[in-house]
Write a structure and sequence with these properties.
Helices cover 31% and strands 19% of the residues. The protein is α/β, with parallel strands linked by helices.
Length: 331
């Protein structure tokens, strides 16, 4: 049976081989970012609860470890905001120390104003938060957050977390053409980010098709030009090679062994739904033959579940985007 909550491992530009753990229903988030690669937010909320059963997630994780699964990092990510799950800290702490696998939390940082979120996040070896605006107007234009969120509160939450956290903090700054890419705008973002005292700042832009077609990529040479405003900074985008950051003991092994038949198909679908990928990336991450992956992708495409996009000479497979009926929580 294909895992319900685990996906990958996938090859990450920053984390090496990363086994993803998805803790909320598809596109349940506190933001509705126009640049998101996996579609519009359908559940815009600040409600924290146990969206998926913690015990089942830990059981899947334990089975993966017991069967010889290997990765550089176990990563709370997926197609939503992982800190909305009220017990995400318990899941981070459940990773067996003997496995030698590090943990990472990839978050939009929106809930770090809550002490309980900051406390739970301290269980991760690496925490990456996003911060890409300089004032309330730019925040609402780019991130389209829940109405109760305020940029100043988010920034203060991240600053407080940095004072409490002894692990590695990364901040991702996402630039979009015509929205937040001008030198004076980026300088003001850099002033904010500097107060977080991160170990690394990662400058990024649109790589795959965004939710909002009006959100465009910033050219690599412009990103490189803006990078001097941040310290320490790494440019992360298509066509710009980056070194893997902070990954001790790279493993050559991938998953615990491939499934077959429908289980294999659902595992492939689960991966591309959360992390659009090439055939080669899927094959390497799941330990499958490329020909099998391509055949399964074509079958999924024939029934309308996935689609392929060609960018920079690469075929990127993604879940087919169906225009959502947006459910907005009042919480």
């Amino acid at each position: 049976m294909a895992p319900r909550f685990l996906f990958g491992p996938v090859k990450s530009r920053r984390l090496g081989w990363s086994l993803g753990i998805d803790l909320v229903p598809f596109k349940t988030c506190s933001f509705d970012c126009g640049f998101c690669q996996v579609g519009a937010t359908t559940g815009l909320t600040l409600e924290r609860r146990e969206y998926v059963p913690t015990a089942e997630v830990i059981a899947e994780l334990s089975a993966w470890c017991a069967s010889g699964g290997r990765a550089d990092y176990l990563t709370l990510s997926g197609a939503g905001e992982p800190t909305l799950h009220s017990r995400f800290g318990d899941i981070l702490r459940a990773v067996p120390a003997a496995s030698g696998v590090h943990t990472a939390l990839l978050s939009n940082g929106s809930l770090f104003y809550l002490p309980e979120v900051r406390l739970a996040a301290q269980a991760a070896d690496v925490v990456k938060v996003s911060f890409s605006a300089w004032d309330e107007d730019s925040f609402r234009r780019l991130n389209r957050p829940h109405s109760a969120l305020r940029l100043a509160s988010i920034a203060e939450g991240i600053r407080t977390f940095r004072q409490e956290y002894v692990g590695t903090l990364w901040v991702e700054v996402f630039l979009a053409r015509g929205i937040n890419d001008q030198p004076d705008q980026v300088a003001r973002i850099a002033d904010f980010v500097r107060t977080f005292a991160p170990n690394q700042i990662q400058l990024n832009t649109v790589v795959r098709s965004p939710t909002d077609s009006a959100v465009g990529a910033v050219e690599a040479d412009i990103l490189a030009d803006r990078a001097h405003l941040f310290e320490p900074c790494e440019v992360v985008c298509a066509g710009v090679p980056v070194a893997t950051l902070g990954v001790p003991g790279r493993n050559e092994g991938k998953g615990a062994g491939p499934l077959s038949g429908e289980g294999c198909r659902e595992q492939i679908f689960g991966l591309v739904q959360r992390h659009p990928s090439t055939v080669e990336e899927i094959a390497q991450g799941l330990g499958l033959d490329s020909a099998i992956v391509r055949s399964e992708l074509e079958l999924l495409q024939s029934v309308g579940r996935i689609e392929v996009e060609h960018r920079a000479g690469r075929a990127i497979w993604n879940a087919a985007l169906i225009p959502p009926t947006r459910a907005v929580s009042s919480n």
